[in-house]
Amino acid sequence: NRAYEKAEKGDHYGAISDFTKAIEINPSEGAYYNRGISKYEIKDYYGAISDYTKAIEISPNLESAYYNRGIAKTALKDHYGAISDYTKTIEINPKKDQAYYNRGNRKFSIKDYYGAISDYTKAIEINPKKFKAYANRGIAKEEIGDLKGACSDWRQTESLSPNSPAAKWLRDEC
């Protein structure tokens, strides 16, 4: 429909208007969810969170709504709220490596380094080529004093992504 076309073309204000009209006619999880995406794109993070929440109320197992709400909460630096949403995403889809990675980043932000390491490790188990998870796990390991483990992760990062900052970390730290 028109709302999706507008969103695809980057006309998020027009898409929001059309999704709002669709919601007035038929308040579906899809309309709320997609309006939430457009609100996120214009940096209306609170509005996006509200729409994702409405989508979840209609469809409680809508994994992508929890995941995107976690991203919006991250933009607002609501680390604990984001962790909660990524956790729910993982409960619904335990194979979503990006949810583990994002949750690990939020745990790192609150200085839960062991929790971050655990989440990065799970992301790597699901997707062994996820070089950013190795890099961030290395940083978390450095924070807890495990420089040997950090260097090992940074070597793996460098092998997967030779242009990553890991090469500098290896030279400077290992």
Description:
The structure is a single chain. It contains eleven helices and no strands. The chain starts with a helix and ends with a helix. It has helices at 2-8, 12-25, 29-41, 45-58, 63-75, 79-92, 97-109, 113-126, 131-143, 147-160, 166-173. The protein is an all-alpha fold. The protein is 79% helix and 0% strand. Helix 6 runs antiparallel to helix 7 (97-109) and helix 8 (113-126) packs antiparallel against helix 9. The mean pLDDT is 95.
What does the largest sheet look like?
A: none
Helix content: over 70%
Number of E-state strands: 0
Shape: elongated
Number of helices: 11
Radius of gyration: 19 Å
Residues in β-strands, percent: under 5%
Oligomer: single chain
Q: Low-confidence runs (pLDDT<50, min 5 residues)?
A: none
Written as H for each helix and E for each strand, in order along the chain, the element string is HHHHHHHHHHH
Topology:
Layout: H1 2-8, H2 12-25, H3 29-41, H4 45-58, H5 63-75, H6 79-92, H7 97-109, H8 113-126, H9 131-143, H10 147-160, H11 166-173
Helix pairs in contact: 1-2, 2-3, 3-4, 4-5, 5-6, 6-7, 7-8, 8-9, 9-10, 10-11
